[in-house]
Amino acid sequence: MTGPTGAPSLHPVATGVLIRGGRVVDATGQRVADVLVEGGRIAAVGGDLAAGMPSGVTVLDASGCVVAPGLVDLHTHLREPGDEEAETIHSGARAAARGGYTAVVAMPNTDPPLDDAAVVAAVLARGADAACEVVAGGCITRGREGRELAPLGELHDLGVRIFTDDGACLSDAGVMRRAMEYARSLPGAVIAQHAEDPALCGHGSMHEGEWSARLGVPGRPAEAESVVVDRDLRLAALTGTPLHVLHVSTAQAVESIREAKAAGLAVTAEATPHHFTLTDAACAGFDPVFKVHPPLRTAADRDAVRAGLADGTLDAIATDHAPHRTEEKERPFEEAPPGMLGLETALALTLTELVEPGLLTLEQALGALSWRPAAIAGLSDRHGGPVAPGGVANLCVFDPAATWEVDPTKLASRARNTPFAGRKLTGRVRHTVLAGRPTVVDGRCADGG
Ligand code: DOR
After folding, report:
1. Based on the domain organization, do 34 and 147 belong to the same domain?
2. Between 52 and 251, the higher pLDDT residue
3. Does any ligand 1 atom lie closer than 6 A to the CB of residue 77?
4. E-strand stretches of 58-198
5. Nearest-CA residue for atom 3 of ligand 1
6. DSSP class of residue 369?
């Protein structure tokens, strides 16, 4: 879609979009209704809005589908700047749109990293015409080196709300305390930690346990995560700054966060589809596609993550979409970079692994994928809100009963490193609408991909 100058435009054209015959599900409940979108906003929600519709309106068939607020990913690696062969802002945003997302938080471990206002501004400018809204996460420390604070205030002025050195753990407690004290003065700012103590992880490439011992691969113990989470919870209590725990993978950390929430602490946390689906047994064949930080854990940890999502201890499902070039990811297990694709499979894995077996209701699942992450990222004014007149039309339409098989060659992402290749999943995105503009129609990107 192009604007008046022929350049790609985020802004909707004047003609409307009618999403017809679906079941609307949002934080307020469920109802069968058509949704009319005009001027980028929801104009009407109700029964049979097709009658008397002017001819210019684009009709999107939603029969058999759920119509929900667009999904919001708190944790996406877009690789631009620095590794555009693996992913770009535009290819990652297309993958996001195909997965039902209308907004992603771009992680700052790029090259150069997002520790500088000029780099953040450049990423935001590149993302302005992407297939989903791209907001920037900012580094906590310069170069993600864990020593000197990044200019958090300047980054905040550009709209950054989530600060993290993700990919690296901020392990110096004094620096963490100073970051939290600084962030306290920045409205809506959240300090987000990749909780893996580097000294305990050493050169470990997978979870430390029975499987790592059997395979002879150095491990990363569960305690590497939980000691950092426990420490950061205490620092959050000391400073009063909201803490967000990234990709929680252990039963120990789930329990600590549960207790902290019960005590009234301002802590939020996310879990990834790979951690609630896979276990360290997947590493048995030494296939690096299963290598990720934090690593795949035991079945007991996976079940604790599921339980954490079910009781709300874990607020959000975040992808940690981490594209890697094929030649990199095909190196021997211990040398290959950690990370897995996630944007195009997250919704279906949530439906297949959590909703279908009855662990989460559909509303809970969509809360974890849409409105709760939107609130954490400070995006609730335009993402995750109720599907009601006046709201910005960021929407996701998916068929909860459609089955499909994950084929890495058919992904919109530039990379191919999905650990779910060949897996049969239930639930598929049919359409995605970004600020009133369809970005995905009938499962295909509106630009044809
Ligand atoms: O496995 C991971 N890969 N974990 C991270 O935290 C970083 C990510 C990456 O950037 O590849």
Report:
1. no
2. 251
3. yes
4. 58-61, 66-69, 71-76, 101-106, 133-136, 162-164, 190-193
5. 339
6. I
Can 165 be counted among the known catalytic residues?
Answer: no
CA of 392 to the centre of ligand 1 (A): 32
Provide the 10 A C-beta neighbour count for residue 339.
24
Domain of 411, in residue numbers: 17-67+389-445
> Which residue is catalytic, options 111, 320, 399, 447?
320
Q: Which atom of ligand 1 is nearest to the CA of 337?
A: 11
For residue 194, which atom of ligand 1 is closest to its CA?
6
Whether 89 and 182 share a structural domain: yes
Quickly state the pLDDT bin for 286 (edges 50, 70, 90): very high
- Show the DSSP H helices in 89-151 as ranges: 89-98, 117-127
Quote the number of domains for the chain: 2
pLDDT at residue 211 greater than cutoff 60: yes
Mean pLDDT of the chain: 96
Under a CB-based contact definition with an 8 Å cutoff, are residues 272 and 247 in contact?
Answer: yes
**Are 151 and 62 in a shared domain?**
no
Same domain for 52 and 114: no
Query: Cβ(270) to ligand 1 under 6 A?
Result: no
pLDDT of 2 above 80: no
371 token code pair = 């409105």
Ligand 1 contact via 242 beta carbon (within 6 Å):
no
Q: Which residues pair with 267 in a beta bridge?
A: 243
- 316 contacts: CB under 8 Å, gap ≥ 6: 74, 268, 269, 270, 271, 368, 369, 372, 373, 376
* CA of 279 relative to ligand 1 center, distance in Å: 17
Q: Read off the pLDDT of residues 223-261 as tens digits, 9 standing for 90 and up.
A: 999 999 999 999 999 999 999 999 999 999 999 999 999
Q: Whose CA is nearest to atom 5 of ligand 1?
A: 167
Q: Is residue 5 part of a domain?
A: no
Among the atoms of ligand 1, which is closest to the Cα of residue 338? 1
Cα distance between residue 399 and residue 62, in whole Å: 8
When pLDDT is averaged across residues 38-63 and rounded to a whole number, the result is 92
pTM over 0.90: yes
100 lines ligand 1 (CB under 6 A): no
H helices within 208-296, ranges in order?
210-215, 222-239, 251-262, 273-277
